[in-house]
Amino acid sequence: MESTTRGILLLSIICCLVLNHAQGEADCESDKCSDETSGAPSGCGCSTSRTHDGKTAHATATDSKSKVSNSHSEDENKKYPPHKYTEQINLESPYKRTNMMAFIPGGTFNMGTNKPIFLADGEGPEREVRLAEFYLDKHETSCAEFELFVNATGYVTEAEKFGDSFVMEKYLSEKVLKGISQAVASAPWWLPVKGADWRHPEGPDTNIKDRMDHPVQHVSWNDAVAYCSWVGKRLPTEAEFEYACRGGLNQRLFPWGNKLMPKEQHWMNIWQGEFPYTNTEEDGYFGTSPVTAFPKQNKFGLKNIIGNVWEWTQDWWDVRHSPDFKENPKGPPSGTDKVKKGGSYMCHKSYCYRYRCEARSQNTPDSSAANLGFRCASDTLPDYLLSKIKMNREYGCFIFGILGCVCGGGRG
Ligand SMILES: [Ca+2]
Ligand SMILES: [Ca+2]
Asked: Smallest Cα–Cα separation from 365: which of 58, 43, 55?
C-alpha cells in the first residue's frame, strides 16, 4: 500500500477514535441514563456497505440465481435434493436444531428513546407503538440452519456472487491481509476480503467446520429474506425486534435492565478491551459465539438478541420518526438501506455503543459482513414447529395419561 494511503488511513483511525470516544462517555448502566452525549455524531463503521455502481447492483439483485427456486435442472436436483424444511430434514442434520420460536404476545410499548446516545442514528423520539402478537426465533440463524437451506435449494449468497465481503482486519491471517490493498476510509479496520462468505467467514483459508452452531455471517438482507421465506417465516419489523428485545421492560438499555453485567456475569457477546486494538475476550469470545451461548436475555427466552451478530429487520432506514402513535409500523415505504439491530461482538462502549434495544444502524440490502446475521419472525407457527408441538403433546399424554394429562394451551 502506498505510504500516503497508509497515512490517510491512520489519520482516519485517529479521527474516528477521538470522535467516538466522546460518544461513549455516557454512563447508562444505572437506572438514570445520562443524556450528556445526545447529539453525538454517528459513524462507527457499523454501516459499512457494499459500494458499486447502480447498474451492477441492479443486475445482481435481479439475477435469477439470487432467488430461491425449485426449478433446478436434473443435475442440480441430484446435487441439491428439493427437500422442504420438514421435521425429517431436521432429523437428517447432524447438528442440534435451534430453530425454535418464542411467542411474543401483542401489546403497546414505547419505541425509541428521548435520551439517544447516537442522535444521528434516529434513536428518538420515544413514541407509542402497538403490535399484534407474533413469533420470533429464539436464536440467531445458525450456520447449520443455513446449510440446510443451501443444500435443499442450491441458493448462492450475494457475498459468493460478488466474490467478497467485509471482515475486520484483526480477524484475518497474514496471507489474506497481504492480498488486500483497499480499506473503508471511515472505518479502516473493515476490509473487503475476496472469498469471504458464509462458509469462509475470515476469507478463503477459514471454514465453519467447528462453528456450525454459531450465527451464519456474510448474509445480505436479500439472503436473509430468501432464507426466512423458505422456512415459512419472514424478517421481523424493527418495531417487533425492539419490542421483543425490551421484554416487557420500559426504557431500559438492555433486554434484562440497565446493568451491563447482571450478577457480575456476561450476558452478551461484545468487545472487551480497547477497540480496535485489543480484545481481552472477558466474555469468552473473540469472534462469534454459539447462538445458544449466554443466559436467556429476557422473559421471552431470547438469546443474543443483543450482541454476537447484528440482525437484519424488514424496515427501510430513516432517521426521522413521527412521535405519533402507530399500530404495527413497518417503516418507510422505500429507501436505500435496511435497518439492522442489536449490535455485535465488535461493539464496544467506547466506540460503537449500539448493543442497546433502541440502538440501530443500517446497510444496503446487498451488503454483507462478518458481524451481520439475522433471525426470523412469523405471524403463526410454521408447520414444522406445529407438528413438533403436536408430537410432544401426544407423547406427554401417552406418558402421563394415567394421571389425567391435560393437553391444551401452550405456544412456541
Ligand atoms: Ca466477545
Ligand atoms: Ca444478535
From this structure: 58
